[in-house]
Amino acid sequence: MTPTSTVLGAGLDDVTRSEASLRRFLHGLPGVDQVGAEARAAGLGTRSIKTTAKEFALDLAIRMVDLTTLEGADTPGKVRALASKAMRPDPADPDCPSVAAVCVYPDMVATVKETLGSSGVHVAAVATAFPSGRAALDIKLADTADAVEAGADEIDMVIDRGAFLSGRYQQVYDEIVATKAACGRPDGNDAHLKVIFETGELQTYDNVRRASWLAMMAGADFIKTSTGKVQPAATLPVTMIMVEAVRDFRELTGQMVGVKPAGGIRTSKDAIKYLVMVNEVAGQDWLDPHWFRFGASTLLNDLLMQRTKMKTGRYSGPDYFTLD
Amino acid sequence: MATTPFEYAPAPESRSIVDIKPSYGLFVNGEFVDGHGKSFKTISPSTEEVLAEIAEADEADVDAAVRAARKAYDKVWSRMPGRERAKYLYRIARIIQERSRELAVLESIDNGKPIKESRDVDIPIVAAHFFYYAGWADKLEYAGRGTDPQPLGVAGQIIPWNFPLLMLAWKIAPALACGNTVVLKPAETTPLTALLFAEICQQADLPPGVVNIITGAGGTGQALVGHPGIDKVAFTGSTDVGKAIARTVAGTDKKVTLELGGKAANIVFDDAPLDQAVEGIVTGIFFNQGHVCCAGSRLLVQESIADELLAKLKRRMSTLRIGDPLDKNTDIGAINSAEQLARIRELSDIGEAEGAGRWSPECELPSHGFWFPPTLFTGVTQAHRIAREEIFGPVLSVLTFRTPAEAVEKANNTPYGLSAGVWTEKGSLILHMANQLRAGVVWANTFNKFDPTSPFGGFKESGYGREGGRHGLEAYLK
């Protein structure tokens, strides 16, 4: 039940042995200077991406979208429509790539799975008492197992921010390890685990960096900024801190972990800024839907509109693209 | 998982906004006039293309400019109430903002610096300097120089080629705010934005003779410094020329400020925010191709983190984009002149010969123009020439230290003292270091930040006097 012994380098094994060693390690990570980090992110945001580079970026961004609906009002009809759109984002252009995944609540997984069939688009489910994470561990694990059983390829879990902020790192670590175990399937084809920090509640970049390392050491396949239910959600500097963390983690352990900013990324221009940042901070290896995702619901249509503009030279109105 | 490279397509800024004339005269008494000397060419360092013929001012031209400035000083400018002078300065500042794109493009063409720096750093600070000193023009009695401070008279100002327009603003804005008139000589390799500034003075209806701009090389500068009609010399440039100026002026009653070379220490402690420190090191030495007198050209890194920091730094240096200064995605532009390129090459070769480890990221350099890749020297000691002499290029020397005391000792062990940087999460250590470093500016967890409200100047061979801020007024008042 302890994936650390197999996936981590020998150095990090000791780190996760006790609450005290975990705390020492996390607080020993280099600090983040807020002013400097924000200046660097803003600088990356000024790159001018044109013509072929823009075409490449738009298609890549579409392939990285986790098309998301997380409303109390979600119905089978609504998520079926979304799943159809995920497979064929632009019905007018068969060359338009599919998105990476459709992200829904666990009870909708089976419906989405059925619609997606063998399209290759993944089903992601939020679990662990999303979005607050305020439930007993066994309920969170049951939530997870339920979604996995229904066919979810990816589980988006939330960490217990209360535990993290009060310094109970071991508890957060153990919960991630347990959830990762709950992602297991008998055939060994485990669901990918994305760990959501809700960075808007963690507030400081130092916390974001510590949470990133904590989750990676606990076996997260992806680290994700936000639920989309708390403001601020994903920002460029917060995501940059996480991208730096996955880069440094690979340096140390050889393991690659994915990053997913979620919430608040609505325009192609914003999405391209993220891709530029990933490209320059972590490198091209992460420019792949396997390692970088956008959690979004409205971003896709802007990407499609910009893509059509690149191809035809003209902007078309919103009515030329499907609602969901 | 296969990935396709994310190659950024070219994103060139248009040159069409700039109108470069085939030849330029001197700006004397509010008008462009022909010079008596021969003319010389200014070229674009990124392409070696000839941009324009520039007049070289001889002694007679310098004399005419100084006389024009004296007349404007006596008759108009020194008598004008501060609030009226302020209006002109505000007007100039606003025109600079309105014409900022034109100024930025021209600066990048003539100097070789990337458009993102001329556009986002140089020109905004230029405008800010005029705005800032416009604010002082009617409040000089509150500057801490007595209740009735008086201007000095005519200022002879000589500026370098690394920040042509910015250095012009640092010199002209406080001089004019205090009631002085000026004769300014831009560097011979980068005269174009100063001549465009002359047009801005006309556009602002500045009284004739308040600002005079004479172009030329060292001889013109000597004639200006030696002219008996000037009351003040302000110089930014190399230490050697600064010493020559000090010798020329010695024994006269001319006032002098000198802002000369530097060999700044950028000190990284083991508890520093490492990713931001890497950015600060990059900004410290690769900003403006390292053509910065306060560049952080000596990296002093605590031994315990040296390997980790260097690995991060090398990875970051590999992402720097070198090439066309007018491309909006260019991080490092061209070296300003063939002469400067030769000096950078010479000192780098010496560094290698003396046994330091030389490293540059793989990068293709354009076939025309003057280029030098971002370069790192490891294993450098205080005894290496590259640790002592100012290279004025994108070349970083890395030294290590073990304790704060050793860091201070090494940082101060230089003939210069213009700037320094300290990187640590510990506030008390920042204050401790700042108190002991013999440098005019100490940046904490940042580097190469400029602001009109902040005084700038050096210790030891980095010169004397301060520019910027309230302190900057002292250089132009008695």
Written account of the structure:
The complex is a heterodimer of chains A (324) and B (478). Helices cover 49% and strands 10% of the residues of chain A. Chain A contains 15 helices and eight strands. Chain A has helices spanning 4-7, 10-15, 19-28, 34-44, 51-64, 76-87, 109-116, 137-149, 161-165, 169-182, 199-202, 205-217, 236-253, 268-281, 299-312; strands spanning 65-68, 101-104, 122-127, 154-158, 192-196, 222-224, 258-260, 294-296. In chain A, β2 (101-104), α7 (109-116) and β3 form a beta-alpha-beta unit. Chain B has 478 residues and is an alpha/beta fold. Helix content of chain B is 38%, strand content 16%. Chain B is built from 14 helices and 18 strands. Chain B is globular. The interface between A and B is medium-sized, with 33 and 27 residues.
Helix-strand layout with pairing:
The complex is a heterodimer of chains A (324) and B (478).
Chain A (H helix, E strand, L loop, with lengths): L3 H4 L2 H6 L3 H10 L5 H11 L6 H14 E4 L7 H12 L13 E4 L4 H8 L5 E6 L9 H13 L4 E5 L2 H5 L3 H14 L9 E5 L2 H4 L2 H13 L4 E3 L11 H18 L4 E3 L7 H14 L12 E3 L2 H14 L12
Parallel strand pairs in A: 1-2, 1-8, 2-3, 3-4, 4-5, 5-6, 6-7
Chain B lengths: L22 E2 L1 E3 L2 E3 L5 E5 L6 E6 L3 H19 L4 H17 L1 H12 L3 H22 L17 E5 L5 H14 L3 E5 L6 H12 L7 E3 L4 H9 L5 E5 L2 H11 L5 E5 L5 E4 L5 H13 L11 E5 L3 H12 L20 H16 L3 E3 L15 E4 L16 E7 L2 H9 L6 E5 L3 H10 L4 E4 L18 E2 L6 H4 L4
Parallel strand pairs in B: 1-5, 6-7, 6-9, 7-8, 9-10, 11-12, 11-16, 12-15, 14-15, 16-17
Antiparallel strand pairs in B: 2-3, 4-5, 10-18, 13-14
Helix pairs in contact in B: 2-4, 3-4, 4-5, 9-10
Keywords (chain A): Lyase, Schiff base
Organism (chain A): Nocardioides conyzicola
Pathway (chain A): Carbohydrate degradation; 2-deoxy-D-ribose 1-phosphate degradation; D-glyceraldehyde 3-phosphate and acetaldehyde from 2-deoxy-alpha-D-ribose 1-phosphate: step 2/2
